[in-house]
User: Fold this.
Amino acid sequence: MSNFLTTSIGKKFLMSLSGFFLISFLSVHLTANLFLLAGSDAFNEASHFMGTNPIIQIMQPVLALGFILHIFYASFLTLQNRKARPESYAKVDQKNSSKWESRNMYILGAVVLTFLVIHLINFFWKIKFTGSDLLKEVDVKGVEMENAYSLVTSLFMSGTLGFIYSGIYILGAVALGLHVNHGFWAAFQTLGLSNNIWRKRLEVLGSIFALIIASGFSIIPLYFLIF
Amino acid sequence: MSSKNINITVKVWRQQDAKSKGIFESYPLSNISTDSSFLEMMDVLNEKLVTENQEPIAFDHDCREGICGMCSLFINGHAHGPDSLVTTCQLHMRKFNDGQTITIEPWRSGGFPVIKDLMVDRSAFDKIMQAGGFVSVNTGGVPDANAIPIAQADAEEAMDAAACIGCGACVATCKNSSAMLFVSAKVSQLALLPQGKIEAARRAKNMVAKMDELGFGNCSNTGACEVECPKGISLAHIARLNREFLCAKVKE
Assistant:
Protein backbone atom coordinates (compact mmCIF):
# COMPACT_ATOMS: atom_id res chain seq x y z
CA MET A 1 0.00 0.00 0.00
CA SER A 2 3.12 2.19 0.14
CA ASN A 3 2.53 4.40 -2.89
CA PHE A 4 -1.28 4.15 -2.95
CA LEU A 5 -1.92 7.89 -2.59
CA THR A 6 0.48 8.78 -5.37
CA THR A 7 -1.58 6.82 -7.93
CA SER A 8 -4.47 8.42 -9.80
CA ILE A 9 -6.98 5.85 -8.56
CA GLY A 10 -5.65 6.15 -5.00
CA LYS A 11 -6.30 9.89 -4.94
CA LYS A 12 -9.70 9.39 -6.52
CA PHE A 13 -10.43 6.74 -3.87
CA LEU A 14 -10.03 9.42 -1.21
CA MET A 15 -12.25 11.82 -3.21
CA SER A 16 -14.89 9.12 -3.32
CA LEU A 17 -14.74 8.21 0.38
CA SER A 18 -14.70 11.83 1.56
CA GLY A 19 -17.55 12.49 -0.90
CA PHE A 20 -19.64 9.72 0.64
CA PHE A 21 -18.87 11.08 4.11
CA LEU A 22 -19.95 14.59 3.07
CA ILE A 23 -23.12 13.14 1.52
CA SER A 24 -23.99 11.51 4.84
CA PHE A 25 -23.33 14.85 6.56
CA LEU A 26 -25.67 16.60 4.13
CA SER A 27 -28.43 14.11 4.95
CA VAL A 28 -28.09 14.73 8.70
CA HIS A 29 -27.82 18.50 8.20
CA LEU A 30 -30.91 18.70 5.99
CA THR A 31 -32.94 16.57 8.41
CA ALA A 32 -32.04 18.88 11.33
CA ASN A 33 -32.72 22.00 9.24
CA LEU A 34 -36.15 20.88 8.17
CA PHE A 35 -37.24 21.23 11.84
CA LEU A 36 -37.21 24.97 11.04
CA LEU A 37 -40.48 24.43 9.19
CA ALA A 38 -42.02 22.85 12.31
CA GLY A 39 -41.68 26.01 14.42
CA SER A 40 -39.29 27.55 16.93
CA ASP A 41 -39.54 24.95 19.72
CA ALA A 42 -38.95 22.01 17.38
CA PHE A 43 -35.92 23.60 15.72
CA ASN A 44 -34.41 24.84 18.99
CA GLU A 45 -34.70 21.35 20.40
CA ALA A 46 -33.09 19.84 17.29
CA SER A 47 -30.35 22.46 17.39
CA HIS A 48 -29.82 21.90 21.13
CA PHE A 49 -29.51 18.16 20.47
CA MET A 50 -26.95 18.73 17.71
CA GLY A 51 -25.02 21.15 19.92
CA THR A 52 -24.84 18.82 22.93
CA ASN A 53 -24.81 15.28 21.52
CA PRO A 54 -21.32 13.82 22.15
CA ILE A 55 -21.22 11.85 18.87
CA ILE A 56 -21.97 15.03 16.89
CA GLN A 57 -19.23 16.84 18.83
CA ILE A 58 -16.68 14.13 18.02
CA MET A 59 -17.73 14.13 14.37
CA GLN A 60 -17.30 17.90 13.99
CA PRO A 61 -13.47 17.91 13.58
CA VAL A 62 -13.75 14.73 11.49
CA LEU A 63 -16.18 16.57 9.25
CA ALA A 64 -13.78 19.48 8.89
CA LEU A 65 -11.07 16.99 7.94
CA GLY A 66 -13.44 15.44 5.39
CA PHE A 67 -13.98 18.82 3.77
CA ILE A 68 -10.26 19.61 3.76
CA LEU A 69 -9.35 16.24 2.20
CA HIS A 70 -12.07 16.56 -0.45
CA ILE A 71 -11.00 20.10 -1.37
CA PHE A 72 -7.27 19.39 -1.25
CA TYR A 73 -7.41 16.32 -3.48
CA ALA A 74 -9.92 17.97 -5.84
CA SER A 75 -7.50 20.87 -6.32
CA PHE A 76 -4.53 18.56 -6.80
CA LEU A 77 -6.33 16.33 -9.31
CA THR A 78 -7.79 19.29 -11.22
CA LEU A 79 -4.35 20.85 -11.51
CA GLN A 80 -2.91 17.57 -12.82
CA ASN A 81 -5.80 17.26 -15.27
CA ARG A 82 -5.20 20.75 -16.62
CA LYS A 83 -1.52 19.97 -17.09
CA ALA A 84 -2.38 16.76 -18.96
CA ARG A 85 -3.53 18.86 -21.94
CA PRO A 86 -0.85 21.52 -22.48
CA GLU A 87 -2.45 22.82 -25.68
CA SER A 88 -6.24 23.10 -25.67
CA TYR A 89 -8.60 22.56 -28.58
CA ALA A 90 -9.84 25.47 -30.69
CA LYS A 91 -13.24 23.84 -30.93
CA VAL A 92 -14.80 21.46 -28.40
CA ASP A 93 -18.38 20.24 -28.49
CA GLN A 94 -19.25 18.18 -25.43
CA LYS A 95 -22.85 19.17 -24.83
CA ASN A 96 -24.14 15.81 -26.04
CA SER A 97 -21.36 13.60 -24.75
CA SER A 98 -21.29 14.50 -21.05
CA LYS A 99 -23.37 16.34 -18.48
CA TRP A 100 -22.52 19.98 -17.79
CA GLU A 101 -22.12 19.41 -14.06
CA SER A 102 -19.72 16.51 -14.61
CA ARG A 103 -17.40 18.81 -16.57
CA ASN A 104 -17.66 21.63 -14.04
CA MET A 105 -17.36 19.82 -10.71
CA TYR A 106 -14.46 21.98 -9.55
CA ILE A 107 -16.27 25.23 -10.36
CA LEU A 108 -19.43 23.96 -8.65
CA GLY A 109 -17.27 22.91 -5.71
CA ALA A 110 -15.80 26.42 -5.53
CA VAL A 111 -19.31 27.92 -5.52
CA VAL A 112 -20.32 25.56 -2.71
CA LEU A 113 -17.15 26.43 -0.78
CA THR A 114 -17.86 30.17 -1.12
CA PHE A 115 -21.38 29.53 0.11
CA LEU A 116 -20.01 27.42 2.97
CA VAL A 117 -17.82 30.29 4.19
CA ILE A 118 -20.77 32.73 4.13
CA HIS A 119 -22.93 30.10 5.84
CA LEU A 120 -20.38 29.50 8.61
CA ILE A 121 -20.05 33.25 9.25
CA ASN A 122 -23.85 33.59 9.39
CA PHE A 123 -24.52 30.86 11.94
CA PHE A 124 -21.73 28.55 13.11
CA TRP A 125 -19.36 31.37 14.00
CA LYS A 126 -22.00 33.23 16.03
CA ILE A 127 -23.24 30.14 17.87
CA LYS A 128 -19.76 28.78 18.67
CA PHE A 129 -17.69 31.89 19.25
CA THR A 130 -19.00 35.44 19.05
CA GLY A 131 -22.59 34.92 20.19
CA SER A 132 -25.51 37.15 19.25
CA ASP A 133 -28.38 38.95 20.98
CA LEU A 134 -30.73 36.87 18.89
CA LEU A 135 -29.41 33.70 20.55
CA LYS A 136 -30.71 34.76 24.02
CA GLU A 137 -31.63 31.61 25.94
CA VAL A 138 -35.20 30.44 25.72
CA ASP A 139 -37.09 27.87 27.75
CA VAL A 140 -38.31 24.85 25.76
CA LYS A 141 -40.19 22.29 27.85
CA GLY A 142 -38.27 23.28 30.96
CA VAL A 143 -34.80 23.21 29.35
CA GLU A 144 -32.82 26.42 28.83
CA MET A 145 -31.32 26.54 25.33
CA GLU A 146 -29.99 29.02 22.76
CA ASN A 147 -32.63 30.51 20.46
CA ALA A 148 -31.05 29.29 17.19
CA TYR A 149 -34.45 29.62 15.52
CA SER A 150 -34.47 33.41 15.85
CA LEU A 151 -30.87 33.65 14.57
CA VAL A 152 -31.76 31.68 11.44
CA THR A 153 -35.14 33.21 10.69
CA SER A 154 -33.95 36.78 11.21
CA LEU A 155 -31.36 36.31 8.45
CA PHE A 156 -34.02 35.55 5.86
CA MET A 157 -36.59 38.04 7.13
CA SER A 158 -34.47 41.19 7.40
CA GLY A 159 -35.87 43.17 4.44
CA THR A 160 -33.66 43.63 1.38
CA LEU A 161 -30.74 41.86 3.03
CA GLY A 162 -33.08 38.93 3.68
CA PHE A 163 -33.79 38.77 -0.05
CA ILE A 164 -30.09 38.76 -0.88
CA TYR A 165 -29.31 36.08 1.69
CA SER A 166 -32.23 33.96 0.51
CA GLY A 167 -30.84 34.23 -3.03
CA ILE A 168 -27.36 33.22 -1.87
CA TYR A 169 -28.73 30.25 0.06
CA ILE A 170 -30.85 29.06 -2.87
CA LEU A 171 -27.90 29.45 -5.24
CA GLY A 172 -25.74 27.46 -2.83
CA ALA A 173 -28.37 24.73 -2.63
CA VAL A 174 -28.69 24.48 -6.43
CA ALA A 175 -24.90 24.34 -6.90
CA LEU A 176 -24.71 21.67 -4.22
CA GLY A 177 -27.50 19.69 -5.90
CA LEU A 178 -25.71 19.77 -9.26
CA HIS A 179 -22.42 18.78 -7.61
CA VAL A 180 -24.06 15.84 -5.87
CA ASN A 181 -25.95 14.85 -9.03
CA HIS A 182 -22.65 13.86 -10.62
CA GLY A 183 -20.70 13.09 -7.45
CA PHE A 184 -23.11 10.49 -6.08
CA TRP A 185 -22.80 8.07 -8.99
CA ALA A 186 -19.14 8.93 -9.63
CA ALA A 187 -18.23 7.99 -6.05
CA PHE A 188 -19.61 4.50 -6.60
CA GLN A 189 -17.90 4.21 -10.00
CA THR A 190 -14.52 5.17 -8.54
CA LEU A 191 -14.81 2.48 -5.87
CA GLY A 192 -15.59 0.02 -8.66
CA LEU A 193 -19.12 -0.47 -7.37
CA SER A 194 -20.86 -0.09 -10.69
CA ASN A 195 -21.63 -1.96 -13.89
CA ASN A 196 -23.94 -1.45 -16.85
CA ILE A 197 -27.06 -2.32 -14.80
CA TRP A 198 -26.17 -0.52 -11.58
CA ARG A 199 -24.93 2.58 -13.36
CA LYS A 200 -28.46 3.52 -14.44
CA ARG A 201 -29.87 2.76 -10.99
CA LEU A 202 -27.16 4.76 -9.23
CA GLU A 203 -27.58 7.70 -11.59
CA VAL A 204 -31.32 7.81 -10.94
CA LEU A 205 -30.76 7.42 -7.20
CA GLY A 206 -28.15 10.19 -7.30
CA SER A 207 -30.49 12.51 -9.18
CA ILE A 208 -33.29 11.88 -6.67
CA PHE A 209 -30.89 12.53 -3.79
CA ALA A 210 -29.57 15.69 -5.50
CA LEU A 211 -33.13 16.92 -6.03
CA ILE A 212 -33.95 16.33 -2.35
CA ILE A 213 -30.79 18.20 -1.29
CA ALA A 214 -31.33 21.16 -3.64
CA SER A 215 -35.05 21.56 -2.99
CA GLY A 216 -34.80 20.71 0.73
CA PHE A 217 -32.23 23.42 1.43
CA SER A 218 -34.01 25.90 -0.89
CA ILE A 219 -37.40 25.47 0.78
CA ILE A 220 -36.10 26.92 4.05
CA PRO A 221 -35.25 30.48 2.87
CA LEU A 222 -38.28 30.42 0.53
CA TYR A 223 -40.57 29.48 3.43
CA PHE A 224 -39.43 32.40 5.58
CA LEU A 225 -39.38 34.77 2.62
CA ILE A 226 -42.97 34.01 1.70
CA PHE A 227 -44.60 33.43 5.10
CA MET B 1 -29.42 8.19 -50.48
CA SER B 2 -29.03 10.89 -53.04
CA SER B 3 -25.52 12.00 -53.69
CA LYS B 4 -24.60 15.61 -54.25
CA ASN B 5 -21.55 17.80 -54.24
CA ILE B 6 -20.79 20.39 -51.57
CA ASN B 7 -18.39 23.27 -51.15
CA ILE B 8 -16.61 23.48 -47.83
CA THR B 9 -13.81 25.29 -46.06
CA VAL B 10 -11.34 23.11 -44.18
CA LYS B 11 -9.53 24.74 -41.27
CA VAL B 12 -6.54 22.52 -40.48
CA TRP B 13 -3.87 22.57 -37.81
CA ARG B 14 -0.47 22.86 -39.53
CA GLN B 15 2.67 22.18 -37.53
CA GLN B 16 6.08 21.64 -39.12
CA ASP B 17 7.40 19.24 -36.48
CA ALA B 18 7.15 18.38 -32.78
CA LYS B 19 9.18 21.40 -31.74
CA SER B 20 7.74 24.19 -33.86
CA LYS B 21 4.59 26.16 -33.12
CA GLY B 22 1.51 25.31 -35.10
CA ILE B 23 -1.19 27.47 -36.65
CA PHE B 24 -4.54 26.97 -38.33
CA GLU B 25 -4.68 27.26 -42.13
CA SER B 26 -7.94 27.48 -44.07
CA TYR B 27 -8.40 25.77 -47.42
CA PRO B 28 -11.52 26.14 -49.56
CA LEU B 29 -12.63 22.96 -51.31
CA SER B 30 -15.30 22.75 -53.98
CA ASN B 31 -17.26 19.90 -55.51
CA ILE B 32 -16.74 17.36 -52.74
CA SER B 33 -19.07 14.38 -53.17
CA THR B 34 -21.17 13.68 -50.08
CA ASP B 35 -20.56 9.99 -50.80
CA SER B 36 -16.84 10.34 -50.26
CA SER B 37 -15.32 9.47 -46.91
CA PHE B 38 -13.67 12.11 -44.76
CA LEU B 39 -10.22 10.78 -45.55
CA GLU B 40 -10.99 10.78 -49.28
CA MET B 41 -11.82 14.47 -48.88
CA MET B 42 -8.42 14.88 -47.19
CA ASP B 43 -6.80 13.05 -50.14
CA VAL B 44 -8.48 15.45 -52.58
CA LEU B 45 -7.22 18.38 -50.54
CA ASN B 46 -3.69 16.95 -50.42
CA GLU B 47 -3.63 16.35 -54.20
CA LYS B 48 -4.71 19.94 -54.67
CA LEU B 49 -1.92 21.12 -52.33
CA VAL B 50 0.66 19.01 -54.16
CA THR B 51 -0.35 20.38 -57.58
CA GLU B 52 -0.08 23.88 -56.13
CA ASN B 53 3.44 23.03 -54.92
CA GLN B 54 2.45 23.18 -51.27
CA GLU B 55 3.29 20.73 -48.50
CA PRO B 56 0.50 18.13 -48.15
CA ILE B 57 -1.16 17.69 -44.75
CA ALA B 58 0.21 14.83 -42.67
CA PHE B 59 -2.46 12.67 -41.07
CA ASP B 60 -2.57 9.10 -39.78
CA HIS B 61 -4.53 6.42 -41.63
CA ASP B 62 -4.11 2.78 -42.55
CA CYS B 63 -6.85 0.17 -43.09
CA ARG B 64 -9.62 2.68 -43.90
CA GLU B 65 -12.21 0.15 -42.83
CA GLY B 66 -12.57 1.15 -39.18
CA ILE B 67 -10.63 -1.64 -37.49
CA CYS B 68 -6.98 -0.65 -37.25
CA GLY B 69 -7.22 2.37 -34.95
CA MET B 70 -4.71 4.38 -36.93
CA CYS B 71 -6.85 7.31 -38.08
CA SER B 72 -7.54 10.04 -35.57
CA LEU B 73 -8.53 13.70 -36.11
CA PHE B 74 -10.56 15.95 -33.82
CA ILE B 75 -13.24 17.23 -36.19
CA ASN B 76 -15.54 20.12 -35.28
CA GLY B 77 -15.10 19.46 -31.56
CA HIS B 78 -15.51 15.68 -31.74
CA ALA B 79 -12.99 12.84 -31.80
CA HIS B 80 -13.53 11.04 -35.15
CA GLY B 81 -16.06 13.71 -36.13
CA PRO B 82 -19.78 14.21 -35.60
CA ASP B 83 -20.93 10.65 -36.40
CA SER B 84 -21.17 8.11 -33.56
CA LEU B 85 -19.53 4.68 -33.30
CA VAL B 86 -17.27 5.28 -36.31
CA THR B 87 -13.63 6.08 -36.88
CA THR B 88 -12.68 9.02 -39.08
CA CYS B 89 -12.16 6.74 -42.10
CA GLN B 90 -15.78 5.58 -41.79
CA LEU B 91 -17.10 9.14 -41.49
CA HIS B 92 -18.73 10.42 -44.66
CA MET B 93 -19.05 13.89 -46.11
CA ARG B 94 -22.86 13.58 -46.04
CA LYS B 95 -22.56 14.44 -42.35
CA PHE B 96 -21.53 17.96 -43.39
CA ASN B 97 -23.41 20.80 -45.05
CA ASP B 98 -22.72 22.94 -48.09
CA GLY B 99 -20.75 26.04 -47.10
CA GLN B 100 -19.67 24.62 -43.74
CA THR B 101 -16.29 25.31 -42.17
CA ILE B 102 -14.76 22.11 -40.81
CA THR B 103 -12.16 22.51 -38.07
CA ILE B 104 -9.62 19.67 -37.94
CA GLU B 105 -7.21 19.37 -35.03
CA PRO B 106 -4.82 16.67 -33.87
CA TRP B 107 -5.51 14.70 -30.65
CA ARG B 108 -4.48 17.07 -27.88
CA SER B 109 -2.85 15.50 -24.87
CA GLY B 110 0.47 15.71 -23.07
CA GLY B 111 0.66 11.94 -23.59
CA PHE B 112 0.23 12.29 -27.38
CA PRO B 113 2.75 14.88 -28.64
CA VAL B 114 2.20 16.17 -32.18
CA ILE B 115 4.69 14.76 -34.70
CA LYS B 116 3.57 16.83 -37.68
CA ASP B 117 0.32 18.57 -38.64
CA LEU B 118 -2.45 16.14 -37.57
CA MET B 119 -0.20 13.19 -36.68
CA VAL B 120 0.41 12.47 -33.03
CA ASP B 121 2.74 10.02 -31.30
CA ARG B 122 0.55 7.40 -29.62
CA SER B 123 3.40 5.14 -28.51
CA ALA B 124 2.38 5.94 -24.93
CA PHE B 125 -0.36 3.34 -25.43
CA ASP B 126 2.25 0.76 -26.46
CA LYS B 127 4.22 1.53 -23.30
CA ILE B 128 1.09 0.97 -21.20
CA MET B 129 0.52 -2.36 -22.98
CA GLN B 130 4.12 -3.38 -22.36
CA ALA B 131 3.60 -2.70 -18.66
CA GLY B 132 1.04 -5.50 -18.34
CA GLY B 133 -1.41 -5.80 -21.22
CA PHE B 134 -0.54 -9.41 -21.98
CA VAL B 135 -0.73 -12.96 -20.62
CA SER B 136 2.42 -14.99 -20.11
CA VAL B 137 2.01 -18.43 -21.69
CA ASN B 138 4.27 -21.43 -21.67
CA THR B 139 5.46 -22.68 -25.01
CA GLY B 140 4.50 -26.18 -26.07
CA GLY B 141 1.74 -27.92 -27.96
CA VAL B 142 -1.46 -26.19 -28.94
CA PRO B 143 -3.92 -26.46 -26.04
CA ASP B 144 -7.16 -28.35 -26.66
CA ALA B 145 -10.09 -26.19 -27.66
CA ASN B 146 -12.53 -25.66 -24.78
CA ALA B 147 -10.11 -27.20 -22.30
CA ILE B 148 -10.78 -24.24 -20.05
CA PRO B 149 -14.51 -23.63 -19.72
CA ILE B 150 -15.49 -19.94 -19.83
CA ALA B 151 -18.97 -18.64 -19.04
CA GLN B 152 -20.62 -17.26 -22.15
CA ALA B 153 -21.44 -13.92 -20.48
CA ASP B 154 -17.79 -13.48 -19.44
CA ALA B 155 -16.55 -14.35 -22.92
CA GLU B 156 -18.95 -11.78 -24.44
CA GLU B 157 -17.91 -9.08 -21.98
CA ALA B 158 -14.22 -9.80 -22.61
CA MET B 159 -14.82 -9.63 -26.37
CA ASP B 160 -16.64 -6.28 -25.95
CA ALA B 161 -13.56 -4.94 -24.17
CA ALA B 162 -11.27 -6.45 -26.80
CA ALA B 163 -13.08 -4.39 -29.45
CA CYS B 164 -10.87 -1.46 -28.38
CA ILE B 165 -8.63 -0.52 -31.30
CA GLY B 166 -6.40 1.78 -29.26
CA CYS B 167 -7.08 4.83 -31.40
CA GLY B 168 -6.90 7.26 -28.47
CA ALA B 169 -10.27 8.94 -29.02
CA CYS B 170 -11.00 8.50 -25.30
CA VAL B 171 -7.91 10.51 -24.36
CA ALA B 172 -8.62 13.09 -27.06
CA THR B 173 -12.20 13.55 -25.90
CA CYS B 174 -11.69 13.48 -22.15
CA LYS B 175 -11.53 16.95 -20.63
CA ASN B 176 -8.76 15.57 -18.39
CA SER B 177 -6.88 13.70 -21.14
CA SER B 178 -7.40 10.55 -19.14
CA ALA B 179 -6.54 7.18 -20.67
CA MET B 180 -8.77 5.23 -18.27
CA LEU B 181 -11.15 3.87 -20.94
CA PHE B 182 -8.26 2.45 -22.97
CA VAL B 183 -6.50 0.97 -19.94
CA SER B 184 -9.76 -0.41 -18.55
CA ALA B 185 -10.58 -2.15 -21.85
CA LYS B 186 -7.13 -3.71 -21.98
CA VAL B 187 -7.36 -4.83 -18.34
CA SER B 188 -10.94 -6.10 -18.74
CA GLN B 189 -10.33 -8.21 -21.83
CA LEU B 190 -7.88 -10.30 -19.81
CA ALA B 191 -9.22 -9.99 -16.26
CA LEU B 192 -12.51 -11.60 -17.27
CA LEU B 193 -10.86 -14.75 -18.61
CA PRO B 194 -9.18 -17.54 -16.60
CA GLN B 195 -5.97 -17.18 -18.62
CA GLY B 196 -5.70 -13.55 -17.55
CA LYS B 197 -6.63 -13.98 -13.90
CA ILE B 198 -3.18 -15.22 -12.82
CA GLU B 199 -1.50 -11.90 -13.53
CA ALA B 200 -4.59 -9.76 -12.89
CA ALA B 201 -3.36 -7.94 -9.77
CA ARG B 202 0.09 -7.19 -11.14
CA ARG B 203 -1.40 -6.13 -14.49
CA ALA B 204 -3.82 -3.58 -13.00
CA LYS B 205 -1.13 -2.03 -10.81
CA ASN B 206 1.55 -1.84 -13.49
CA MET B 207 -0.70 -0.52 -16.25
CA VAL B 208 -2.19 2.18 -14.00
CA ALA B 209 1.29 3.14 -12.78
CA LYS B 210 2.52 3.47 -16.37
CA MET B 211 -0.57 5.47 -17.37
CA ASP B 212 0.03 7.90 -14.49
CA GLU B 213 3.74 8.14 -15.28
CA LEU B 214 3.12 9.07 -18.94
CA GLY B 215 1.18 12.19 -17.97
CA PHE B 216 -2.41 11.25 -18.73
CA GLY B 217 -4.99 12.97 -16.52
CA ASN B 218 -7.25 11.55 -13.84
CA CYS B 219 -10.69 10.19 -14.76
CA SER B 220 -13.54 12.29 -13.41
CA ASN B 221 -16.31 10.02 -14.70
CA THR B 222 -17.82 12.48 -17.18
CA GLY B 223 -18.54 9.60 -19.55
CA ALA B 224 -17.57 11.53 -22.70
CA CYS B 225 -15.04 8.82 -23.67
CA GLU B 226 -17.73 6.16 -23.87
CA VAL B 227 -19.91 8.37 -26.10
CA GLU B 228 -17.07 9.28 -28.48
CA CYS B 229 -15.45 5.82 -28.56
CA PRO B 230 -15.75 4.42 -32.11
CA LYS B 231 -16.14 0.93 -30.63
CA GLY B 232 -18.59 1.83 -27.86
CA ILE B 233 -16.35 0.62 -25.02
CA SER B 234 -18.43 0.89 -21.84
CA LEU B 235 -17.66 2.83 -18.66
CA ALA B 236 -18.40 -0.41 -16.82
CA HIS B 237 -14.86 -1.45 -17.78
CA ILE B 238 -13.50 1.57 -15.89
CA ALA B 239 -15.44 0.42 -12.82
CA ARG B 240 -13.84 -3.01 -13.26
CA LEU B 241 -10.37 -1.48 -13.56
CA ASN B 242 -10.98 0.51 -10.35
CA ARG B 243 -12.10 -2.71 -8.67
CA GLU B 244 -9.11 -4.68 -9.94
CA PHE B 245 -6.70 -1.95 -8.91
CA LEU B 246 -8.14 -1.40 -5.43
CA CYS B 247 -8.28 -5.17 -4.75
CA ALA B 248 -4.68 -5.53 -5.95
CA LYS B 249 -3.56 -2.74 -3.62
CA VAL B 250 -5.41 -4.26 -0.67
CA LYS B 251 -3.67 -7.61 -1.29
CA GLU B 252 -0.24 -5.95 -1.28
